[in-house]
Design goal:
By secondary structure, the chain is an alpha+beta fold. The chain has a domain at 110-167: SH3 type barrels (Roll), CATH 2.30.30.830. The chain has helices at 2-6, 15-37, 55-60, 74-78; strands spanning 110-118, 121-128, 134-137, 141-142, 145-151, 154-158, 163-167. The strands form two sheets. A four-stranded antiparallel sheet has the order 4-5-6-7, with no helix packed on it. Strands 1-2-3 form a three-stranded antiparallel sheet, with no helix packed on it. Strand 6 (154-158) and strand 7 (163-167) form a beta hairpin. The mean pLDDT is 78. This is Type II secretion system protein GspC N-terminal domain-containing protein.
């Protein structure tokens, strides 16, 4: 008995043949069932097939699918699938507020000395606190301010968002 336990069980020499025969019989049974369901033919019977939808619905349905264009799928165009530069979708950022435009500092460091007129040309004589007298024509810029008009004894300067008036000093009553 100890020898029987120690010896390995060997398959009978007829086992491979029996397995092959069993596989052939199983295939024959499956094939006979298939033929019995199809009434003896492996080809489908089109005449007996049930329609999936009613004939009126089939007649009105468009047989061609709608054409897909790049306008239907902008995300695919913007981020192609197999490109190395492809990145995950990010929600659009809120627009940044426009920068606050601050007007240039007022022209407090300047003194209006006089106005010259010759026909349609008007020129203001302006002296900086430190420096020589300069001539500023209408439409010319001085430290970010545009001299818009010269009228009477006033110089009217403007920027995009502010305006500033400079007045000529009153003549002194002192004699030179």
């Amino acid at each position: 008995m100890s020898q029987a336990i120690r010896s390995k069980a060997r398959p009978a020499p007829f086992a491979p043949l029996a397995l092959r025969l069993l596989a052939v019989l199983l295939a024959a049974v499956v094939l006979s069932r298939i033929l019995a369901l199809g009434q003896g033919s492996l080809q489908p019977d089109i005449a007996r097939a049930r329609p999936l939808a009613s004939p009126s619905a089939a007649a009105t349905a468009d047989p061609t699918p709608p054409e897909a264009t790049a306008t239907h799928y902008p995300a695919i165009i913007e981020r192609p699938l197999f490109f190395a530069s492809r990145k995950p979708w990010q929600p659009p950022q809120a627009p940044k507020p426009p920068p606050v435009v601050r007007p240039p500092p007022k022209l407090t460091g300047y003194l209006a000395l006089g106005i010259l007129e010759s026909g349609s040309v008007r020129v203001a004589l302006i002296k900086p606190k430190s420096g020589k007298t300069i001539m500023v024509y209408e439409g010319q810029t001085l430290d970010g301010w545009i001299l818009k008009t010269i009228a009477g004894n006033q110089l009217h300067f403007v920027t995009e968002s502010a305006s500033f008036d400079m007045t000529l000093p009153k003549p002194s009553s002192k004699k030179p």
